[in-house]
Amino acid sequence: MKLVNFISITLIFILLTRTTIDADLWWHLRAGQMMVEQKQILLTDIFSYTRFGAEWVNAFWISEILLYAIYSIGGYFGLTFFVAITGVATFYLISRRLSGNPFLNGFILILAAITAAPIWGPRPQILSFFIIALLDDWLINKRPRWFLIPLFAIWSNIHGGWIWGFLLLIAHSAGEFIEQLISQEKNWSEIKNLIGWSALSALAIGLNPNGLAIWVLPFQQINVSLQIQEWLSPDFHQIAFHPLLWMIFLLLLSASFSKKQNWSQLFKTLGFAYLTFFSQRNIALFAIVAVPLLFDWMNATLQNFQRDTRLKPTVDLPRPLRLLINSTLVFALVVTALGNTYLVSQPEKVDSNYPIRAIEWIKENQPQGNLFNSYNWGGYLLWTLPEYPVFIDGRADLYGNEIINQWHAVVSGNENAIQILDEWQVNLILIEPYWEITKTLELNGWQKVFEDEQAVIFVR
User: Fold this and answer.
1) Which of 2, 21, 160, 261 is the most buried (most CB within 10 A)?
2) pLDDT in tens, 140-181
3) Domain range summary for the chain, segments of one domain joined by +
């Protein structure tokens, strides 16, 4: 059955192998590059002219240095491999807790990986996804609770997703509370112990270069990010989000066959399901925390309907032949996984998603003045066109509603769009051709100097 587990994990690697086109990857890389070169942690903005010099709560500095180091060593291939292997580590960690039918377990693991795939990309948040799996594993196995302090201290320097960890702790504690209420022999020491160490770990969050400002970050992001695609609810008209529905339907169908309820896992699953319906960026979290519960319920369902527990083959293959077949299969899967990683990480695959020709035009012609840019290209411009500070990029918490609303007013062609461009002394615009503002710029003294299917450039 180890072969079944290996096949499942290798398929997960392939499923989570993605071309590195995430819009936020690039400003993380640029920040990592600057920190390595300057040998200091970036805590103020140096990449934009709209927020230049403003305090930047950089909760990702360790991740950014790590991503830049991986890119420096392995390029796009290294980043693609890192994303996939982090997914493998996450789901392997979950698989160690599982028992029951290995084929069913493998199916559920793969389904969970497919569910998480739309949000699994080259960003620090995948490290938070791994830490969530690690934290859940330690809670279920009742490992020493003191580990929460170093875990959250490190987490607050990797990614702002430490808030997910506290939500997991709350859900787990609520489940333990219900367990004690219905238990005949009450023992509240475990809950008190967990709450005490959780409180101390909350203080450990402050052990980072940003200080107590790190506490405000998750709430700032919620406040300003609801206009951004990944913070919206899942759009189930997109097939990529259908595996989420399949996991939920399987949970509903198998729930009645569970003989004993695991309240902690149930509360965690329900809690992160709620977060997922509120914002699609939480899908991977739901997939991770729901897997153990779905394992238990689906295996209980299988046992309920199973009549013959094992189909015995009439002829057992000789051991050397089985070893040859298994080795060939393993070799083929490994070659496929690495080959696929190489193919999807080719530079032309990455570049095809960004306005390369428009950027080349700017490099060749060197137009003067401030640049107004597409939100989705802000990070990429920081990486490929660093001599031009951007109007905006993916750091929504830094820019806040003020700049985000101004950006939206401009691209939408609102009545104050030209006034905003004048106030920021913008002389260069690089955006997608479909924005409404492109229809009125030439009537207001702007000249279109470049256009293709991806981008349009205006100067004045």
Assistant:
1) 160
2) 888 888 999 999 999 999 999 999 999 999 999 999 999 888
3) 2-305, 354-459
Residue 18 dihedral angles phi and psi, to the nearest 5° = -130, 150
Residue with tokens 């905006």: 392
**β-strands 370-373, 426-431 pairing:** parallel
Per DSSP, the three-state class of 447 is: strand
Backbone angles phi, psi at 214, to 5 degrees: -60, -25
Q: What gap in Å lies between CA 219 and CA 224, rounded to an integer?
A: 9
pLDDT digits (tens, 9 = 90+) for 69-99: 999 999 999 999 999 999 999 999 999 887 7
Length of the chain counted residue by residue: 460
Question: Whole-angstrom Cα distance, residue 433 to residue 297?
Answer: 50
Q: pLDDT tens digits, residue range 264-275? A: 999 999 999 999
Go through 63-72 and write b for each residue having 16 or more CB atoms within 10 A of its CB, e for each that does not.
bbbbbbebbe
Q: Position of tokens 């569910």?
A: 115
DSSP secondary structure, 357-373, as one string:
HHHHHHHHH---SEEEE
Q: Is the pLDDT of residue 321 over 90?
A: no
What's the helix, strand, coil split of the chain in %, to 5?
A: 65, 5, 30
Listed in sequence order, the residues at least 6 apart from 440 whose beta carbon sits closer than 8 Å to its beta carbon are 413, 417
